[in-house]
Design brief:
The complex is a heterodimer of chains A (353) and B (308). Chain A is mostly helical. Chain A is 75% helix and 0% strand. Classes of the chains: A mainly alpha (353), B mainly alpha (308).
């Protein structure tokens, strides 16, 4: 009982660095706002109103939080193993491309299409991730650079598809594909909003990953992250684990692409992923690679993004302020790790992470 | 046909310059044992800094100087995070690239507001080499460029000299390979690493300036487009040797110029696929060489005295 209480208390304490990081990031960006002649209070108020002001806006925040959560779950899987998959965008885009292709080109009953597009998108993500993992495990290719480069490559591929082979023949030359049949799309949860059933898929995935870390496979991924030598010595197949980790990581992002394709987009367009991939990195780190922490951080950052658009429109503060806050949050999270380390050392305790 | 080849080779030199400059800086940084993904962010920030300084002072020299100083200062953040804080270098670099992207975009709007026509500057003019420029074939390829290209070529020699012929180069090598041994010999590991990251930042600053002042005459948010990241791959492929860096950077410049020329002569390949070539090339090259590349043994790991 007592140890449970202590556990709960230390969990609560571990939130503090994340909260301080957010506060400091807001403080520094307020200074930037002041220097550039904007009123920080006005800017942040309009941001908050834009994200939570009424039920429609809140539903938009939730809509945006869905893909961010799912991609960040994938990012966290890789980061846990000290593999730096920073190409969430490309993996999300692959999922979306496959999902849309299956849904518009196959002539099957809607139920089959939903299942089939899911399986196809997931498979594409897994295979792509396994390919990235195999390059790392077998050929020692730096995964940071390959995942980064594929962000550009897949973005160009998508652009080619929507301007070329997949362009809607009845679309008057707009760079987009035909729409997915209505019956395949997720049902809307609330009338007059875009909030869709994908929310439950995202929550399921959060639970899935939470449970996954308790399985032997989850444990070997964590072990590879802590020390490859120790993992190897205790019988973990490191190369295989690296491939599985990257496959799983990309699989999540691809599922996010599937959810968004069937949830909000309904078709492919140029630059579908926007900056989701980089937001997912921030979210995974701020959530301390914990599934629930990730879900909460995702909500926070999707609020920033949705509110940031309102802020740009109504108060004239550029949206790039949100990107600045993202960068600052990571920087402060990194620094807080150092202070924690020092603090634990002073108390003579062992750092449990 | 001969004109096509001349324009291709001359374009290759021009497009490889920003990558070459950034990559040369990363020779110092990576040799000292640090993977610096903030290059991209440093280039974006200093690209804007160069543009703003030149726009208001009408002086290209001042623009470049500003970019170098901004690159120096911005990379000190990276040095602080991965040397003093001992943060994970990938994460620190990603964060600083994000911050740089956001800051540059924000500042550009804060300084210039929203205009109908983008503000422009008088960019670097091509130098005159008199009779050298008249030499057939070689003249129009080598002797028709602006100052940034020759500066980059000059820095290849400087970088080679510093890395191979000076004590500083020797220290850098020691710090990257055997930080503990270097420390026990009285070499200040942190100091050398700080210097290497910030020298890398100055080169990145120059690389940024070469984009807004040399390659173009304006600033846009997506101007750097992954060139900083490509530069990191270039250094790995060239195995940290400045002359090989030149060769590899030219290869990338060549791929890029070829795809632009192919677009302009209307070859029947969709331009989105052509544009993907340099990025695809990076992956393919890394696939080919990574197994045989010997990274500095302390690459990517922070050094701390009290850890074994």
């Amino acid at each position: 009982m007592n140890s449970k209480y202590h556990q709960a208390r230390s969990r609560l304490f571990s939130l503090i660095p994340s909260l301080i990081s957010i506060l400091l990031a807001c403080l520094v960006s307020s200074i930037i706002l002041l220097l550039s002649g904007h009123d920080p209070i006005e800017a942040f108020t309009s941001l908050a109103v834009g994200a939570f002001g009424n039920s429609y806006r809140f539903s938009e925040t939730l809509v945006k939080a869905i893909p961010i959560t799912v991609i960040a779950l994938g990012t966290s899987v890789a980061f846990k193993a000290q593999l730096w998959n920073i190409g969430g965008n490309s993996q999300y885009t692959i999922g979306a491309i496959v999902a849309v292709a299956v849904s518009i080109y196959l002539d099957l009953p809607p139920v089959f299409l939903v299942v089939l597009s899911f399986l196809a998108a997931l498979a594409a993500g897994l295979v792509f991730g396994a390919f990235l993992g195999a390059m790392k495990a077998r050929l020692n290719v730096n995964e940071v650079i390959t995942t980064l480069m594929f962000d550009y490559i897949i973005a160009f591929l998508l652009s080619w598809l929507v301007y070329g082979p997949m362009m809607d023949p009845e679309g008057f030359g707009f760079p987009q594909t035909a729409l997915i049949p209505k019956a395949v799309m997720f049902t809307k949860l609330i009338a007059n909003s875009r909030l869709h059933g994908g929310l439950f898929v995202a929550l399921l995935l959060v639970v899935f990953l939470f449970l996954f870390w308790k399985t032997p496979q989850g444990f070997s991924i964590t072990m590879v992250g802590q020390s490859r030598t120790v993992a190897k010595a205790s019988g973990v197949k490191v190369s295989k684990t690296i491939i599985i980790t990257m496959a799983l990581s990309a699989g999540f992002a691809a599922m996010a692409g599937w959810i968004d394709a069937l949830g909000i987009h309904g078709r492919l367009q140029d630059n579908l992923a926007g900056s989701l991939g980089s937001v997912a990195i921030v979210v995974a780190l701020l959530g301390r690679l914990h599934p629930i922490g990730i879900a909460v951080s995702a909500l926070f950052f999707s609020a920033l993004i949705v509110g940031g658009n309102t802020m740009q429109r109504f108060v004239g503060v550029p949206f790039s302020l949100v990107t600045i806050i993202q960068g600052l949050v990571i920087i402060f999270v990194i620094c807080s790790n150092m202070f924690e380390h020092i603090w634990h050392k002073k108390r003579g305790g062992v750092q449990h992470d | 046909m001969i004109d096509f080849i001349i324009s291709l080779l001359s374009g290759t030199l021009r497009t490889s310059t920003p990558i070459l400059l950034a990559a040369l800086g990363q020779v110092y940084t990576q040799k000292s044992g640090i993977l610096d993904l903030s290059v991209e962010g440093t280039m974006i920030v200093s690209c804007l800094a160069a543009f703003i300084a030149t726009f208001f002072s009408q002086s290209l020299f001042l623009g470049m100087l500003t970019a170098v100083i901004v690159g120096f200062l911005y990379s000190s953040l990276m040095a602080f995070l991965c040397i003093t804080v001992k943060a994970n270098q990938v994460i620190a670099g990603t964060a600083l690239t994000m911050l740089g992207t956001g800051l540059a975009s924000f500042l550009y709007r804060a300084v210039f507001g929203i205009r109908e026509l983008p503000p422009v500057i008088q960019s670097c003019q091509n130098l005159e080499f008199g009779f050298l420029g008249e030499i057939p074939f070689i003249g129009p390829i080598l002797f028709c460029h602006n100052i940034t290209i020759y500066l980059a070529l000059f820095l290849v020699v400087v970088t080679w000299f510093v890395m191979n012929k000076t004590v500083f180069g020797l220290y850098t090598h020691a710090v990257g390979e055997f930080p503990r041994a270097a420390d026990s010999k009285g070499i200040r590991v942190s100091l050398i690493r700080y210097a290497c990251v910030m020298i890398g930042g100055m080169y990145s600053g120059l690389a940024g300036a070469s984009m807004s002042l040399g390659f173009m005459n304006t600033y846009t948010d997506h101007m750097i487009a992954g060139r900083g990241f490509i530069a990191i791959a270039v250094v790995v492929f060239a195995r940290w040797h400045p002359v090989k860096v030149l060769g590899t950077a030219l290869l990338f410049g060549g791929a890029n110029t070829l795809q632009m020329r192919m677009q302009s002569i209307g070859i029947d390949i969709p331009n989105q696929l052509l544009q993907a070539i340099p990025y695809l090339l990076t992956v393919i090259i890394l696939l080919g060489v990574s197994k045989h590349v010997n990274f500095p043994s302390a690459f990517g790991t922070p050094y701390s005295r009290d850890e074994t």
